[in-house]
């Protein structure tokens, strides 16, 4: 897995530079891992004011909201960096890449539920909370699957090392003879 700080730096860079390629990559990745959220991403996209935008009230005072571009570019940047990570991982391990992609899809759904929770009425929040719990439960299961793959890899590598150690013990006399022969040949070789 890549360095989280490096990933965060990439997110910040995309958020600041706002490249069009990032929008396309984020949309493509979202269509793969969470197609149900494509319209949600579209709704965050900055553009002309829509007449039915919700107004956030704090203590009865309307809040001056930005055009939404920060939220939109935060999500685009996150999805773009995750897409890049899955692509690189798939070159080495397609099984892990698929699991990580599914995890990122769940994370995108959790972020969408988080945004919904912020603006939801108190009566709707318990339902959103239950959906977030279900998403995190699924995410936890995928993390366990990744750990199981890692354990299997470690056990396989350990078995290989043990087998090599046993082979060396079994053929110790031959290895010593070859090593001594090399030393003697090198000692009598003209310089």
In short:
With 191 residues, the protein is mainly alpha-helical. The chain has 7 helices and 2 strands; from the N terminus they run H-H-H-E-E-H-H-H-H. Helix content is 77%, strand content 2%.
What does this protein structure show overall?
This protein has helices spanning 4-17, 20-33, 38-44, 69-92, 94-119, 125-170, 172-188, and strands at residues 57-58, 61-62. The chain has a two-stranded antiparallel sheet with strand order 1-2. With 191 residues, the chain is mostly helical. It has a domain at 4-45 and 64-153. It starts with a helix and ends with a helix. The longest helix is centred in the C-terminal third of the chain and has 46 residues, at 125-170. The mean pLDDT is 88.
Task: Give me some keywords for this one.
191 residues, single chain, mainly alpha, elongated
Q: Could you outline the blueprint of secondary structure elements for this entry?
A:
Layout (H helix, E strand, L loop, with lengths): L3 H14 L2 H14 L4 H7 L12 E2 L2 E2 L6 H24 L1 H26 L5 H46 L1 H17 L3
Antiparallel strand pairs: 1-2
Helix pairs in contact: 1-4, 2-4, 4-5, 5-6
């Amino acid at each position: 897995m890549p360095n989280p700080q490096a990933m965060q730096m990439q997110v910040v860079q995309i958020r600041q530079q706002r490249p069009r390629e990032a929008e396309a990559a984020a949309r493509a990745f979202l269509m793969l891992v969470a197609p149900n959220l494509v319209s949600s991403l579209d709704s965050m996209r900055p553009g002309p004011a829509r007449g039915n935008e919700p107004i956030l009230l704090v203590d009865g005072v309307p809040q001056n909201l930005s055009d939404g571009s920060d939220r939109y570019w935060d999500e685009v940047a996150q999805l773009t960096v995750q897409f890049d990570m899955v692509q690189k991982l798939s070159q080495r391990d397609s099984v892990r890449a698929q699991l990580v992609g599914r995890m990122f899809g769940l994370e995108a759904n959790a972020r969408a539920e988080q945004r919904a929770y912020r603006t939801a009425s108190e009566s709707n929040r318990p339902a959103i909370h239950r959906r977030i719990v279900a998403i995190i439960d699924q995410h936890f299961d995928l993390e366990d699957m990744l750990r199981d793959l890692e354990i299997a890899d470690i056990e396989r590598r350990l078995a290989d090392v043990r087998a090599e150690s046993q082979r060396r013990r079994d053929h110790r006399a031959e290895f010593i003879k070859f090593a001594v022969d090399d030393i003697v040949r090198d000692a009598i070789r003209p310089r």
